[in-house]
Each structure stands twice: as C-alpha cells, then as structure tokens.
Amino acid sequence: MKKYLFLIFFVLIFSCREKKDFSEIEFWTLQLSPAFDDYFHELINEYEKTHPGIKIKWVDIPYDVAIQKLLSSIIAGNPPDAINLSSDFLAKFESIKALVDLKTLYPEDTFKIFLPNALESCIVNDKVVALPWYLNTYILIYNKKLLKDAGFIEKDLPKTFSELIEFIKEYKNRTGKYAFFWNIGKDSYLPIMLESEGIKMIDNDMKKTLFNSEEAIELIDKWVQLYRNGYLPRESILATGTKIIEPFQSGDVAMVFTGPVFIRRIRENSPEIFKNTDVASVITGRTGRHELAAMSLSVLASSKHKKEAADFIFYLVSAKNQLKFSNLTITFPSVIEALQDSFFTNYDGTLESKARVIGVKDLRFAHRLRTYLQVSEFDILRDIFDEAIQNACLNKKSTRDAINEAVNEWNKILQEEF
C-alpha cells in the first residue's frame, strides 16, 4: 500500500513540476495557413529549441472573422497571448485596454530597428501597442494588351489622381469598356485620395471632421460624377475591399490600384491575364504621399506570459525571419536591416521582382493617411462615409448634402468618444 501511495505522490509531484516548468504561448495569425505552414512550423521549432521552457501554440483564423473572434475570446476570458492584427484595428482594442504597451517591457531604443513610418502605425495614444510586421504599399497593376488595343502607351499611364480621372474617361470613350476598378462606396479608398491631396479627414486632436470643405466636396464629387456618368462599374460602390482584384483578373477592367501582393493571385487564378500584366508606380495626390498597409503583432493584456509572448513576436519580426517571409510573398519587412538586402533592389526579369523594386522605392513615402483609424469607433465612421458616397452615386442626395450629413454624424461620434 505504501508503495502505491509513493507512486501516486511521485506522479503528482512530476505533473506539477511539468506545469511549473512549461509555458504555452498561444499565437493567432490571420489567414496565413496553409500557404505558410512550412514557414511557421520551421520558425516555431527553431524557437522552441532555443527556449526549452516555451511551447508555441499557433492558431490561424480567417481574416473576415478575426475581430469578432478576438472580441468573443476576450469576453469569454480565453484570448490568445499574442495576435497578428491589421494595424487598422489597434485603436479599437487599445480603447478597451486589451493590448500591452510594449514600452513597459522594453527600453525605447529597442524600437529603433523599425521603419519610422511602420512603427508610427502601431502607436495609439502614445503607446506602442504592437510591433509592425509585414508591410504593403500600393502600385498600379495594368493589362498591357487592353491598353495597347485602346491606343495607349506606357507614358500615358496616370501618375496622379487628377490624371487618373481623365484616363478613366478617355479609355471608356474609346472602347466602351471600363478602365479602372476601385472601391469608392464600400470600404472606400476616397479617404486615401483626399489625404494624399492634402485634405485631412479629421483634425489632429481627433475631435473635428474636416472633409466637407469646398475643395474636399469638389474632389469627392469628381468620383461621384464618374460613377453617375457610367465610367465606373456598379461594383465600385457595392463590392468590399476584398474583391478589388477580381474585375482585373477576369479581364473586365484594364487597371487596378492595389498592393503588389495580389500579383501572385493573378498568376495563379488567371494565367492568360497574367501574361499581359505589368506594374507601375503608385498613384498619388499633390502631396506625393500614399497609404501604408501594415500587419502587426500585439500581446494581449490578459496574457499570463506577457514578456515571453513579447519576446516571441520580436523573434518573428527579426530581419532574418522577415526576409524569409518576403521571399515567399510580395510584401515588405518593417525592419530597416532587412530592407537593405539586395533582394529588394535586384530585378531578375520577373513581374514579382519588378513590383518589389518599385514598391520598396515608394515605401519611404508611405504613411497611415487615414488618421481616423486611431478613433476606436473608426468602423462606424467608415460605414457612415461609405453610405454617403453610395447615396451620392445613386443620386439619392447631392454630393454636398450627403457629405455634410456624414460630417455631422462623425462629429457626434467624436464628441461622445472624447
């Protein structure tokens, strides 16, 4: 009997010791499996070997349900330790104190490894609530054959938004077909256009809306008139941002303005279109500035292993590991050291490398133009703006009235928030 009691006691002691010596970090990514399974398994195995007391539990979730799933996990009391989020959503989670200010764990000099404009997208209320991870900027993707058939040559490609508007009209007048697809009424890109033209959507204190100035209404109305006069497809006001590449890869439009990351999707889904695809530099307004899209990595405030989780996400954003990731996809690293690699400056004759070389040159001028994303209710603001554009495009209201009503609704929300 004593022998059995000793064995039970030994097993209990051993189990407790295992629990004490073992820390599991649950880490969520957004729609990166199965495409990058090998990459993450290799990185995680390497990390666990050099950190014997740590186990990483990697969970990949669909992009479209990420926000709701994270909110639900927080309410249920079982969120991950670390998560990959678009930097667009950081203010929402910082507003409920869900994210760790990484400045409380590391000296300020630690963050100098990042591109300043990338780190900027991860700062909310002077807190570093995330590390910038992989980045994307915008390029013009176009169908060479369709442009040639319409009588255009490379030097005719638009470089500014005002040139783009004229090009859209001329192409449709010549061919009867659509030149360009861009979301203006759902997940609208018009705020990016306005900010690039030097017109702010919101003031620096995030308390007052500014996009109903005469100049702003005039610029917005140019896009409304394009739609009303049949120069933009119906999907421009109905389709979500995730659909932006579809009209191009189906051959319905000659150009699209989006991230170079979509080039591989075109090659895989539409090989015939890909044969005639080329890329050009980003289209901007008069400031020359354009939008930076940043994926980020955050540590949850509820984590029992904050420092361990933070050490792991720093490992993911190292120059070595980001360079590996950039070799697998047309994205850009957030750390300065990785961007200095010749991989980003060598053109090897492929469309992917051409997009990469163009993108890395434009990257230094990329910033978070949509500063209203720092408002926790930004998604409500976005929907109000989108509805105003839809109402104007469908001639339910004048552009002026639709925008003025949207501005009034924005101001009410901003007054409640601050």
**Number of E-state strands:** 13
Helix tally?
19
Radius of gyration: 24 Å
> What share of the residues does DSSP label as strand, in percent?
5-15%
Outline type? globular
- Provide the low-confidence segments as ranges: 1-18
Overall residue-averaged pLDDT value: 93
Major sheet: 5 strands, mixed
**End-to-end C-alpha gap:** 69 Å
Structural class call reads alpha/beta
Helix content: 40-55%
Strand order of the largest sheet: 2-1-3-12-6
Brief synopsis:
The protein contains 19 helices and 13 strands. The protein has 418 residues and is of the alpha/beta class.
Overview of the structural elements:
With 418 residues, the chain is of the alpha/beta class. It is 45% helix and 15% strand. The strands form four sheets. The protein has a five-stranded mixed beta sheet. A four-stranded mixed beta sheet has the order 8-9-7-10. Strand 4 and strand 5 form a beta hairpin. Helix 18 (378-393) runs antiparallel to helix 19. The longest helix has 20 residues, at 2-21.
